[in-house]
């Protein structure tokens, strides 16, 4: 299959980390988003960052910065829509999204999502939690450009929860192993950064 475009969702406000952009927090002398870029670059045709506010703060990464096209920052789905509009303008068929605060995202994310795609072209990533229960990770997905207008209408109508929209379209699910650690581990609090340092040392 053709490599999709990649969009890194960097809209988190890091309230538990003191505010600011989580993706710019440093992990081993590299911003969190830098680790995500390193992992996604070999898998995607090209990358962009979804973020609002002054785009200059992302200049070090030399990537397009896509603001939400929907008002009031309604959440990750708005970032998906911004990515789909960007992809459509480039003549692409799909995007893959990843969160900016997940430094261990899978090196085979794209291939696994493409292998489990649903009939609509959608697929979300999932992994088992510590109890073995499967948890979907809705900021990690394969999204077809063909559904962008449907998503725009859903957002305009007030939809915010990603899985409510993906379930409407019979999304596939790609399951990733959580051993030795969950590849979708994300940094939400200072203790998570300490854990990320430990995991990176083991890697």
Set out the fold topology:
Layout (H helix, E strand, L loop, with lengths): L4 E5 L16 E2 L2 E2 H9 L6 E4 L14 E2 L9 H14 L4 E6 L9 H7 L7 E6 L5 E11 L3 H9 L5 H7 L3 E4 L14 H13 L1
Parallel strand pairs: 1-4, 1-6, 4-5, 7-9
Antiparallel strand pairs: 2-3, 6-8, 7-8
Characterise this structure:
- Residues 6-164 form the MobA-like NTP transferase domain.
- Monomer.
- With 203 residues, the chain is of the alpha/beta class.
- It has a single domain (5-202), classed as Spore Coat Polysaccharide Biosynthesis Protein SpsA, Chain A (Alpha-Beta Complex), CATH 3.90.550.10.
- The protein is 29% helix and 21% strand.
- The protein contains six helices and nine strands; from the N terminus they run E-E-E-H-E-E-H-E-H-E-E-H-H-E-H.
- It has helices at 32-40, 76-89, 109-115, 148-156, 162-168, 190-202; strands spanning 5-9, 26-27, 30-31, 47-50, 65-66, 94-99, 123-128, 134-144, 172-175.
- The strands form two sheets. It has a seven-stranded mixed beta sheet with strand order 5-4-1-6-8-7-9, sandwiched between helices. Strands 2-3 form a two-stranded antiparallel sheet.
- Helix 2 packs antiparallel against helix 4 (148-156).
């Amino acid at each position: 299959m053709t490599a999709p475009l990649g969009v890194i969702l960097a809209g988190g406000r890091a309230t538990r980390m003191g505010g600011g952009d989580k993706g710019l927090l440093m992990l081993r002398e590299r911003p969190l988003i830098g680790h995500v870029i390193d992992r996604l670059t070999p898998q995607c045709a090209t990358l962009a960052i979804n973020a609002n506010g002054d785009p200059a703060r992302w200049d070090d990464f030399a990537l397009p910065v896509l603001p939400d096209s929907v008002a009031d920052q309604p959440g990750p789905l708005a970032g998906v829509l911004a990515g789909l509009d960007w992809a459509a303008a480039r003549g692409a068929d799909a995007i893959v999204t990843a969160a900016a605060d997940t430094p261990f995202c899978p090196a085979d994310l794209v291939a696994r999502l493409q292998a489990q795609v649903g009939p609509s072209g959608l697929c979300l990533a999932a992994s088992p939690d510590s109890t073995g229960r499967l948890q979907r990770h809705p900021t990690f997905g394969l999204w077809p450009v063909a559904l962008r207008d449907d998503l725009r209408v859903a957002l305009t109508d007030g939809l915010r929860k990603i899985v409510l929209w993906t379930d409407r379209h019979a999304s596939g699910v790609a399951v990733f192993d959580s051993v030795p650690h969950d590849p979708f581990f994300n940094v939400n609090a200072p203790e998570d950064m300490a854990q990320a340092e430990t995991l990176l040392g083991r890697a």
